[in-house]
Design a protein that fits this description.
140 residues, mainly alpha, DNA Binding (I), subunit A, two-stranded antiparallel ribbon, binds zinc ion
Length: 140
C-alpha cells in the first residue's frame, strides 16, 4: 500500500525537521520547498513543486527560510549571533556574567547530517523518534 504523500514527506528524515532537526509535531508541521517555489522578485518556479523538492519542516524554520535558497538560509542563520550581539544589551550582559557562552560553529542542516549517516544509524534515529511520539501520545 502506498503511503499518502504527506506521510512520505513526514518520514523523509525520521519525523524530524529537515533543517533544525527538532521532532515534528504531527499536528503542526509544514512542507517546505528546498528550492523555493517563489523568489522575492515574484518569479515563479512551478516545476519545483515535486515531492523530491519537498522538505518536512517545523513552522519556525519554514517561516524563517521563506523564499531563500538553502545557502541564503544558512548564511542568515550564521549571522544570528552577531545580530543578537549588536541589538541586545541584555544578551551581552548575560554573556559578561558567564551565563551564556557562544560557540563558533558552521551551520549544518539536519538533512545534511541525516543523509551522511549509514542506514543502521538512520534506523536508530527513526526508532527514537517513534518512541518519542508514542510517549507523547501521538497516534501512529
Ligand atoms: Zn526546524
Amino acid at each position: 500500500m502506498m503511503l499518502p504523500k504527506r506521510e512520505v514527506i513526514y518520514q523523509k528524515y525520521g519525523g524530524r525537521c529537515a533543517y533544525c532537526g527538532c521532532v515534528l509535531d504531527k499536528k503542526n508541521w509544514h512542507i517546505d520547498h528546498l528550492e523555493p517555489l517563489r523568489r522575492g522578485d515574484g518569479d515563479q518556479y512551478k516545476h519545483r513543486d515535486v515531492i523530491t523538492n519537498m522538505m518536512p519542516s517545523c513552522p519556525s524554520c519554514n517561516h524563517y527560510k521563506s523564499t531563500w535558497t538553502i545557502e541564503e538560509f544558512r548564511r542568515e542563520i550564521q549571522l544570528m549571533p552577531s545580530r543578537i550581539n549588536k541589538k541586545n544589551p541584555t544578551y551581552k550582559m548575560a554573556k559578561r556574567y558567564g551565563l551564556i557562552r557562544e560557540e563558533v560553529n558552521k551551520v549544518e542542516f539536519y538533512f545534511e547530517y541525516y543523509n551522511s549517516c549509514p542506514p543502521l544509524v538512520k534506523a536508530y534515529i527513526n526508532d527514537t523518534v517513534l518512541e518519542h511520539l508514542k510517549e507523547h501520545g501521538a497516534r501512529l
